[in-house]
Amino acid sequence: MDAAFGDALVRLLPNLRRYALSLARRPDLAEDLVQITVERAIAHAGTRDPAQRLEPWLFRILRNAFIDMTRRQRSEGTRVDVTENPDILSTDGTAVTEARLMLQATQAAMARLPPDQAEILTLVCIEGLSYAEAAEVLGLPKGTVMSRLSRARLALAEALGIK
């Protein structure tokens, strides 16, 4: 990263914060989005076309980060801090045992899947990567990632007797 890029990035931070706040509507999430944007911009500074303006490129990174964050939150469900709500901790031994058995069965079923299916399930469902991120990691088109993930989910459901 050259000094001019860094200076321009710092100069655009207020603009990024405003845009992030307009998307997230929460200051804490907006700050997270700005941080993600800066990290990604620095990591991919070499791929940026210097003939193009920096601001739209940064806004596109921020918007994509917001979309990724929104999708991840939807798939994760509601997060609850057990230290703030200790009464939600499960003490039902049957539920704990059933959850452990299901986890063991899922791990065993994943071990029997073809390596490409197990890998895509791990990246997207366990590690929480978006389809685009998983495609980048695997060096595949996003559509291929989506179809492999679909086949992997179906195979896993069949192996677990869910489908």
From TrEMBL:
GO MF term (any one): DNA binding
Keywords from the named record: Sigma factor, Transcription, Transcription regulation
Domain of life: Bacteria
SUPFAM superfamilies: Sigma2 domain of RNA polymerase sigma factors, Sigma3 and sigma4 domains of RNA polymerase sigma factors
RNA polymerase sigma-70 region domain sequence ranges: 11-75
UniProt record, GO biological process: DNA-templated transcription initiation
NCBIfam families: sigma70-ECF
PANTHER family in alphabetical order: RNA POLYMERASE ECF-TYPE SIGMA FACTO, RNA POLYMERASE SIGMA FACTOR RFAY-RELATED
Protein name: RNA polymerase sigma factor
